[in-house]
Each structure stands twice: as structure tokens, then as C-alpha cells.
Amino acid sequence: MDKNKIIDDILNEWAMRSHDGLVSGHDTPENMATLNEILSERGEVNRIDLFKNKAKTGTKIEPNKASTIKNEPQWTVEYLVEQKTFNRPSAITIIEAIRELNPTDRKEFLYEKFDRLSADQAITFLNKKGTSYSAFLDALDKARKAKGKSDDDDEGDVSGSKAGRGEFILVLLIQGGKSAGAASGDIILPSGESIEVKEVKDSGESFRATRASFGGQFNKIPYIDAVNELVAFCSGNQERAGALIELTENGGVKDGEGSGKGKKRKELTYLKAFFTNPSIESINTSIVYGLEKLGSHIRSINKKEAEKQIMDPDKVEFDIGKETSILKMDVGDTTPEDLQKIKNPPKEPETISVTVSSIAQEQRRAELIIPQIKRLKFFRYEKKSMDDVFTPENIAKSMFEAMSTPPGHYTGGIIFYNSKTGIFTYEKDLTKLKNGAYYFYGYQQTGPTFTKSIKT
Asked: Residue 262: pLDDT above 70?
């Protein structure tokens, strides 16, 4: 490449990165530090040969003056890759994004704030800056979406594409903070705790967590454990699903519930659809409330009737191929000797004669299916207090507790970035939310969704 073209390119880059556009001169400590940084990034460039007496103002450039700067920021691609763990394409875009700050803000950011603040201090600083950082944040958003191959990964590090809006500026500000890259949890603190950054856009501040955020503990959450058991109980079994639908219809579950100005729930409609095609992905607020009402109804069913054992004396379970059937046996047509053999089978196989018949559907539900349903975790226990009830708020609390406890990925809390207002909010302890409770809204796509605006 032509030497003069290289010089022009670097001088243009230097002017753009300079905190004051080189207005104060080329040989100020701050501007020399910027030049030193650019030349370091272009390791193939011989800076003495290229820049000796070449500054456009005629000022002689002496790169070694940069060594006298105190607290010189490590604003280089290498530092962002090695110390902040950004992928290289993102780091390059971040370096270029600094030009979006005005000279005063740029100098303050690089020399007073970059990699020097706590999470709380970073939040306070950004909220104070407000719209003056808008262009910078927009430019960092482009870095967030940057993809490319890392030095150690032939398949490419796509961590930028997984980051949340508002994350990169916080990684840059927090002392020792690192980008979590492809891992769940957006910012890794020096303590090893991770902070999730969530962008919110509406007044209700709804957000979704991924199942990965639970660190393998998602299925252990009491509500999810109970739902999974219920899904397994209904899946592929029309008789069980039909019994639950009938109980739902007779148990006071109905559509149109809900107070306030919010949209009315469709508890009956959604719950019947859930039992027909059971799946954790279909859980929503209407189903949450509907299941609680159904549970109260099931627990109130006549105890004497519901506690009948599946294997009453006049019922026999037969294994027919791969299927199991429970049939009614006519005891009157069976000899006492054969009855004894049924109760105490002999060691050697023997042939006996019995008369069996199918059990009426209503009787099967009353004597067989309902006792099975009452033993499910969802319907087994009496609720001792409101804390035991699966309300949207209680479900959210148990989920936050799981995410906040190792190996969950919210051990350092959540930082919410409202892209509409530009305000950052930090919730350190998700089990003791200082900014109002969140509610479990439902399961969507990759994990549970939470909101503050639920209407009950």
C-alpha cells in the first residue's frame, strides 16, 4: 500500500478517536496515547519512518511522550479481547464506537470511568448521563450483533449476537467485569457472580429468562416438577385427560375471571386444551389459576370414595402384551380354590378359570382414575398458607431463587435496561425485589416470562 495512503488513513483514524479531534495539538499526552494505541494495533507499521515530521500541522510527533501519561486507559482491541473477553469483531466495533461521544464525555469515559466502577456506580453514572450517551449506546449495539471467528475457535465466537442491549457499556465500565460470551449470564464479575442484563420496552417491564439461566435446576422447581408429572400423566391417555376435563368442568373453573381493567382470563378454555395436548410450553396465567381451582375441587372430593385402592378384591390387573388392563372379576363364578391361587400364586404356573368384564366408565373414574389424580403432586397436599399456593407471584419467587443460587446464572442479580427511557435499574437480590414484585406470566419459546403488569 502507498505510504502516504497509510499515513492519511492513520491520521484520519487518529482525529476521529481523539477526545478533541486533535484540536489541542498532536503532541498532547492524551492525543499521543491515542496515536500509540492505533500504531500498536497496526503492528506492521514502522511508526518512526512513517511519522517522522509528517504531522499535517508540521508538529514533530514523538510517540515516546505517551509513556509519561498517568492512568493511561487500555483502550485497545487486544485489551477488550483478553481482559473483557469480547470477540474480536465486537472489540473492533467498540473501539470505533467511542467517536460517538463528544470530546468531554470521551475523555471522562476513558480516563475516569472505563474499567473503574462498581456495578452500582456504573448504573448511577449511566442514568446521570441520559441522552448524551444515546449515540454511543447505539454504536455499541452494533458491536453486540457483531459475529466472527475468535483466535481459538474455528467455528466462530458468536457471543456478540447473544448479548443483551445495554450489556456492553456495563462490561466496559465495571472494574474487572467480563462479557460472558456464549454462556448464559451477560456480565461476569471479579467475584465470579454473574449479572444478567435484560432489555425492557414496556411500562410493565416484562422479560423472559431462558431455561439455561437456571443452571440445570429448572425441572426441580416445585411448580415445574408438578406440571411435568401432570403432563406425563395425561400424555397419550385419553381416559385420564377426559377425567381431568370433566373434573375441570364440574369444579368451578370458568372463563371470564380476573379483576381490574386487564384482559379477562380463559381458564376453562385453556385448561381443557392443556389436558388434551399437555405440554409445559402451553402454560400461561389462565392455566396457573385454573389448576389451582381444580386442585381445590379435587381435594374436596369425598375422601372415602377417592381413597379406594386401585386393586379392590373384585378387580384384577392383567398384562396383555405391552398393555396393562384392569378388569372386574365375577367372584361368584370363581371357586374358592382358584381365588386362593389368585391371591397367593403357586410357584409353578397353573390354569384357572375366571369370569371378567369391563368396568363402567363412570365407575372407573370414581374408583380408579380419581384416586390416581389425587396422588399427583399438584393435587396431593392441602395448602397450609398462601405461600404454598401456586400463584403467579409465588411461582416467580421460586424461579428467581433457583436462578440466584449457584449454579443458576443470576447470582449477581439482574440489570434492566429500558430502551425507551434509557434508564438502568439494578435488582441485586431477586428474592427481595426492591422495585416491586414480578409475576410468572407463562412459558414462551425458550423459557418462563415474567411481568409486573399482571391483572388478577
From this structure: no
